[in-house]
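To whoever picks this up:

The nightly regression suite flagged Stage 0 sporulation protein A homolog as changed. Nothing in the input moved, so I suspect the structure step. Input below, exactly as stored in the fixture:
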Amino acid sequence: MKMVKVLIADDHALMREGLRKILSTEERIAVVGEAENGDQAIHLAFSLNPDIILMDINMPVANGIEATRAIKRERPEIGIIALTIHDQEEYLFELIKAGVSGYILKDIRPGLLIQTILGVANGESFIPSSMTSRIFAEFNRLYSLSPRNSNTQGLTKREIDVLRLVANGENNRSIAKKLFISEKTVKNHLTSIFQKLGVGDRTQAAIHAVKSKIVDL
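Regenerated output under the current build:
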């Protein structure tokens, strides 16, 4: 993996310093800048072009959700990981709609933080397993009044099976076991699903599937 450039956005200097020290222990990660508010995060995202932004939610001037929306509109390729003290699903719901690829709490273990950054840089998404079912249940509730969309958008039956398990928070190994296929086959199905739906990762694919009523939860 190439060096992953990270921008830290948090209004607390001690938090930024602590994150920088943790990330300095990983040779595959380079911290390229720090922002103390949402406007700075937007400016530095455009000028430094990081691979990943660790984005605090509650910041002055512009909050993390507003900054995420602004950045993803212009630089959708940048992976944004929300870093917050909150574990309430309404924050996660808004952040997913804004375009984050990960959502982690500030008491996360250093090793898991590094693993999450490297994973998101590699095209993966991260949502705490304890919140996965709740967030997709909320999407399902919001769109439950819409008539079911019979348009599968070109997905095969097997791809829909994979997508349904993704939307339920299953990882590739679990999907492979439940469908009696290899993990490589799961990855191939996901690549095809992303292409057909025009999305970049499994979280976006799951949200699209629920919104479009391709799958039921």
